[in-house]
Amino acid sequence: MGMVELENVTKVYRMGKLGVYALNGVSLSIREGEMVAIMGPSGSGKSTLMHIIGCLDKPTSGRYVFNGADISRLSDNRLAEMRSKELGFVFQEFNLLPRANALANVELPIVYGGGGRRRQHALDALERVGLKHRARHKPSELSGGEQQRVAIARALVNNPAILLADEPTGNLDSASTSEILSIFHQLHRDGITVVMVTHEAEIGAQAERIITLRDGRIVSQ
Question: What is the pTM (predicted TM-score) of this model?
């Protein structure tokens, strides 16, 4: 069994009396340590799939098992704990607190999760992405690529089992994109499961496996 197991998952959004299928019968498995890209055109359901894998949303029907746990049977508190400690998130928008420096931004998940030694763990995470020397700088003093590296450090600070990245290079120039992809490759070599959502073929080609969605269904993997 993989780390991520989805069986016939659907996600339906209600618009008045109409039901719109964002996902329609999706089944897939992602093994521990894989680097996977989820691709597809706009509206294909790839971000919805990412949100379900990350326990940010629940399927309308079907079954989702993460690390052997049936997600539908977990309490809201347990799901919140999983999102804090077992899942790391990176988004296209960096979502950094503008008045906090890089170190304080990276410390946030530890603060919310109640962990100890937060300063050292945050510095270690910044070092992992090559930004320990910029720890005292605020987001406005960092380039776009550096801000995304801070966001990656924040996602890594609690040592998650899986890193979920939704269009992580969408706002970056080509040089910063290469830096971010290099970090993802290193994390993959370190044994972290990496799942990227992207609409860019050259980004998807960096992964070991590409899962392609169209109209809420997997058309290839």
Answer: 0.91
